[in-house]
Amino acid sequence: MKRLATISTVFLIFGIVLGSPLVAKGKIIQSLLIGVKQDSGGGFTNADLNYTSWFRNLSFQNFETNNPTANITYGTVNFDGNGNWTGTATEFDSDGTTESGMLNGTYRVSADGSFDFIIKGMAPDPDQTLTGHISRDADRQFGVLSQGEVSSGNNHQGIITFVRAPDNPFDLADLNGTWQFRDLELRNFEEDFREASACTVIIVINNPNWTIDFNCFESDGTTDIDTISGAYTLTGDSFNFFETGDPAVLFSAYRSRNGNILIFSRGASSGGEIGMFKGIAFKKAIKTFTNADLSEAYFFHDVVFEGFETDGREASINVGTVTFDGNGNWTGTAQYFGSDGVSGSDNISGTYSVNSDGSFTFIETSETPNQTLTGNISGNNNTVIMSQRENVSSSGGGGNLVTSDLWIKAVINSQEKGPIEAVWKKGGEDTTSRGDRVIWGHFYANPSDVSWDSSNNPDLFVKIWFDVSGRIDVNYFHVSVPDIEVYSDYPYDGTSNQHGTTTMSRRYIRQYYENNQSYSEENYEDGNPPTGYSPAGNPSGYATINDLKIGSMINTVEKGSIDAVWRLGGQDTTLRGDQVVWGHFYASPSDVTWGSQYNPDLFVKIWFDVSGRVDVNFFHVSVPDIEIYSDLPSDGAYDQKGTTIMDNRYIRHEY
Questions:
Q1: What pLDDT is recorded for position 11?
Q2: Which tens digits make up the pLDDT trace of 205-233?
Q3: How buried is 203 (Cβ within 10 angstroms: 0-12 exposed, 13-18 middle, 19+ buried)?
Q4: How many C-beta atoms surround the C-beta of residue 556 within 10 A?
Q5: How many other C-beta atoms lie within 10 A of the C-beta of residue 81?
Q6: In what order do the strands lie in the sheet with 423-431?
Q7: Which residue(s) pair with 130 in the sheet?
Q8: Which of 81, 34, 33 is nearest to 53 (CA)?
Q9: Residue 488: which of 410, 603, 420 has the closest Cα?
Q10: What's the predicted TM-score (pTM) here?
């Protein structure tokens, strides 16, 4: 176990590379930014910190070396209103050890709400100084601190959030509602196989239960989307959340005095993995937000990771101001401290766009290529949280590393906003009995860019096949209206090897890599089945919605014609009332060795247009011929049928 003096260092450590302020170029970037609105009237003094606060901290040191360490710390700080503080802290270290102790120090509040927070060092450690800002709320309910400095020969970086403790204890029902949550998660920080996630999360709490929908951008460039649920308890000051079936605490949180902010953290060892994370959540406000809700100036603190899994990893802490004009533009200044010990400052600027639910997109146009963060606004507009989750590369920015060597990207040429980068949603992956590997998923338009899309409205299906021979096939299937540009790069070097455009007539593009060369092929499709094929099967079929039944049979070499198994991917309803259902058929593993629910043979997207028209779209993504069937209304006899083959991959049934 490390000596207790380390805790005074813990407060100092977080974050990553904003090279020149809000972002670094060329690698996977993950960040968490927290801002508080400035009080134009000023007038803050030491007396504004005169209460007990609860804090949670993420810190790390020597990130670029062979001996990086990190800490999660939580506890209390008692401010006396006169510039002195005392506290208690429990620290979980990246080596899996835990320790607790007492701390003390001083603080100095400036008129604008910024303050210095000094932690008295324990020999041989010197005093440590963090920079912070207090929220403008009447009760000064929230604050954020960060540090980036070289101390005792080590590079320290970290970020702390604290909330004012309430006058009366909370109870479980105080958390009921919907919360908008962002976090940074670190796993195995001291190991060569370290990983990080930048997550956006929706938490729905109904005492004593909770459900989480999370979307995490991983340090290998992939995206993880899932839903989990469980229950929570209140132990002393801390709300502890448990996943169903697991007695271990998943994460814990402190709630702000006014009840609208939660600060989260976790540090635990489980199954040989050492995990740590820090997050913050806002209770969703019952109001309609606009660009005008972001106006005036905000102080911000930002921690950034770049290339977290690589030997060229970097981190930075960034502190500064951003001034929003209320109309979609912003300017700012930033000071940064990097994990290489280099610091500096810069001017920054860009645009922003606020959605009605308080989420917003924040684009830094002073960087080339532009950098994009997304965020949430608190109900009183006094606090913002943002994160960056992207792969910024010379291929034009963005894109996704689906493995450490294979990069893919899709750009939708929308009517509303022109070219917009599509969001990658991984569906699953598997390995066949002979050693082939498959990864599949789909791209969709970000709902913050266009009103008609969601993660359950695929625009482009993708199946990637890593053949045991060494060949790699990236298969794109167009399933939308706008033209969609598709890219791939292997082995990944930041410059795409293949680029094509899928359209309503050019439905299929295959970009493949073999013998150190890249190739591309495409199919033009009209949606009609090929001539010369007469499907005569009668699959048991599956009911979808609105009395539509679909079925499929795969003509295998091993067993002849077999019933394909349906796997529902999801469904949704657009703002104007269209309904969409999507999923895929696959061969049952009980029929053939290569069959798996994670190895799609036939993608399906069904569109129930608000006009009453129904489109059933089938996309062949395998080798055998596949018969497809549909019936509307379902009456026991299929109305339409056809056979998809490798030269005629797309068939559309219209009702």
A1: 35
A2: 999 999 998 888 888 878 888 899 999 99
A3: buried
A4: 20
A5: 14
A6: 423-431, 437-444, 460-466, 472-478, 508-514, 517-523
A7: 117
A8: 81
A9: 410
A10: 0.61
